[in-house]
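Whiteboard transcription, Tuesday session. T.W. wrote the C-alpha cells on the left side:
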C-alpha cells in the first residue's frame, strides 16, 4: 500500500526522473537518506519499473508513427504468446497493448518513412499467420502524460 509520501515520490519522479536525490528529498520534505531508501523500495517492489529518457523521434530517424490494430485468427494461449513475443521483439514496435474489444492487439509503430511502414505491414505482419486482420492509423501528433497515482492501491475502487 502506498502512503502519501510514496505517492509524492512517484509523481515527482514521473515529472523528472533526472532530479537529484537531494532535490527529490526536498520536494517531499524528507531526509535524502530516507528518500533514497524509499525510492529503492519502490523499485524493489516493482512500483517504479524503470527510468526512461524521452527522445525526439525525428532526431533518431523516426519520420512516421502509426497505430496498428490487429485481430487474431485464434485466441489460444500458446498462439497468442508466440505472436506477442514476435511482435514485442520487433524494433519498430514502440509500445504494444493486448486489449479486449473488436481488436486484440494495438501496436504503436515507429518507422523511418512510409516505405518502412509498408515493409513492416507486408513482410512482418503479413508473415504472421495468426493475424486475421490489420488496420493502420497514422499518428500526426501525440501527448504522453504521467500516470495518475491514486492513494487507494489495494481495492481498485475510487
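and on the right, the sequence the group agreed on:
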Amino acid at each position: 500500500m502506498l502512503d502519501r509520501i510514496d505517492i509524492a515520490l512517484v509523481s515527482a519522479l514521473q515529472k523528472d526522473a533526472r532530479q537529484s536525490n537531494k532535490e527529490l528529498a526536498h520536494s517531499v520534505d524528507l531526509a535524502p537518506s530516507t528518500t533514497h531508501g524509499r525510492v529503492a523500495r519502490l523499485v524493489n517492489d516493482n512500483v517504479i519499473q524503470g527510468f526512461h529518457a524521452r527522445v525526439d523521434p525525428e532526431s533518431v530517424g523516426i519520420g512516421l508513427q502509426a497505430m496498428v490494430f490487429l485481430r487474431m485468427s485464434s485466441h489460444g494461449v500458446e498462439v497468442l504468446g508466440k505472436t506477442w513475443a514476435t511482435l514485442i521483439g520487433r524494433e519498430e514496435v514502440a509500445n504494444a497493448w493486448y486489449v479486449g474489444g473488436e481488436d486484440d492487439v494495438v501496436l504503436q509503430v515507429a518507422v523511418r518513412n512510409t516505405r518502412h511502414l509498408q515493409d513492416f505491414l507486408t513482410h512482418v505482419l503479413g508473415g504472421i499467420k495468426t493475424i486475421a486482420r490489420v488496420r493502420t492509423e497514422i499518428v500526426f501528433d501525440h501527448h504522453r502524460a504521467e500516470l495518475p497515482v491514486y492513494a487507494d492501491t489495494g481495492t481498485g475502487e475510487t
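Someone added at the bottom: The CA atoms of residues 71 and 102 lie 7 Å apart.
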